[in-house]
Amino acid sequence: MDDLQELAPEQRKRHELRLFIFIIVFLFPILAVAVVGGYGFMIWMS
Question: Could you list the residue ranges that cross the membrane (predicted)?
């Protein structure tokens, strides 16, 4: 994470925005599907 502190403010802001978009668009939906699917599978198997 030290590399992030060495970046210029504009580059850091761009990096943080890309990370935020990645988390919102990819990570949260994948985690939501995994949790709901896992719960449904658990109910189905019981």
Answer: 20-44
Radius of gyration of the chain (CA): 17
The pLDDT value recorded for residue 7 is 77
- CA 36 to CA 44: how far, in whole Å? 12
Residue with tokens 């939501």: 32
Which of 22, 23, 15, 20 lies closest to 6, judged by CA?
15
Joined tokens for residue 25: 């668009």
| Cα separation values, 5 from 17, 21, 22, Å | 15, 20, 20
